[in-house]
Amino acid sequence: MERTTSFAMRATRPQAGALLELLKPITWFPPMWAFLCGAVSSGVGLFENPALLIAGILLAGPMVCGASQVVNDWFDREVDAINEPQRAIPSGRVPGNWGLIFAVLWTGLAAAWGAALGFWVGIATLVGLALAWAYSAPPLRLKRNGWWGAAAVGLSYEGLAWLTGAAVFLGGVLPPWQILAVAGLYSIGAHGIMTLNDFKSVQGDRALGLRSLPAEYGLHKAAVIACWFMAVPQLFIVALLATSGANWQALAVSLLIIAQLFAMVKLLKKPEELAPWYNATGVTAYVSGMMVAATALPSMVV
Asked: Residue 271: its pLDDT value, please?
């Protein structure tokens, strides 16, 4: 009897490892990279204040991105019970309403963390967290529509993380328009990256009525849309760099775009098969260009 009662008590509490699993550390890299790009674009030496650098990286990755992952898993728990029953919530390793409780608590902790780093950092954090809930939670549940869902994730993972990195190292103030423009353009481009990420779940999306772009338009057309979204904003970034005198950065980003175009041509031949390959090649060139552009911004805003 005692053993049965003990087991029942354990079954009503989440496993610590399962809570970490909900945060999905593997997803933290994109916003942390964008944060670093924003920090570089501020022109302030990254290692002048190591504590601030670490606090900002933790905000972008484990805090805000982690919160978004917990929120998404909670509101996808019924879908995951069918498609991925081994996940933490449907498997019962995070039982009852603990997933929702953890999502609310981690969201609040992330908001407080961002506010402690400055006014505009706090604002960017709140917007990112609001988008995370709007993406996954009803009634908005932006992920039901591929246009809005990809836009929300792209803005959060790239633009807001970039803005946060710049604002943290500028003392919490709003970054200059050049930084905001480049961050915004890379956010638009990230829409295409998010569309390619939806290729892996297209069958489930169609079955459940989620209108991701691959599910809505087919794989080839969605790949074409993704390529346009990724390529065009980078052309504007090159123009901005060139007209501001950042010649070597403009050339470097141009070469990275050319590399992406060659990869895009290959992608469009077999989009379903080659989407993971493009994520490892074309997207790598894309995010490399982000850092190259970031190095030009300090001299552009002087």
From this structure: 93
Tell me what pLDDT residue 302 has: 62
Helix (H) or strand (E) holding 297: helix 271-300
Rounded distance, CA 212 to CA 147, Å? 7
For 138, list phi and psi in degrees, rounded to 5: -70, 155
Higher pLDDT, 172 or 241: 241
Mean pLDDT of the chain: 91
DSSP state of 17: H
Tell me yes or no: is domain 14-173 CATH 1.10.357.
Answer: yes
How many CB atoms are closer than 10 A to CB 269?
A: 10
Distances (CA, A) of 91 to 88, 110, 168, 183, 202: 5, 26, 39, 39, 23
Q: Provide CATH code, domain 176-302.
A: 1.20.120
302 Cβ neighbours under 8 A, 6+ residues apart:
none
In this prediction, residue 279 has a pLDDT band, given cuts at 50, 70 and 90, of very high
Domain with CATH 1.20.120 in the chain: 176-302
Residue 1, pLDDT above cutoff 60: no
Model pLDDT, residue 207: 76
Q: How far apart are CA 58 and CA 74, in angstroms?
A: 22
What residue spans in the chain does CATH classification 1.10.357 cover? 14-173
Q: What does the alpha-carbon distance between residue 129 and residue 124 come to, in Å, rounded to a whole number?
A: 9
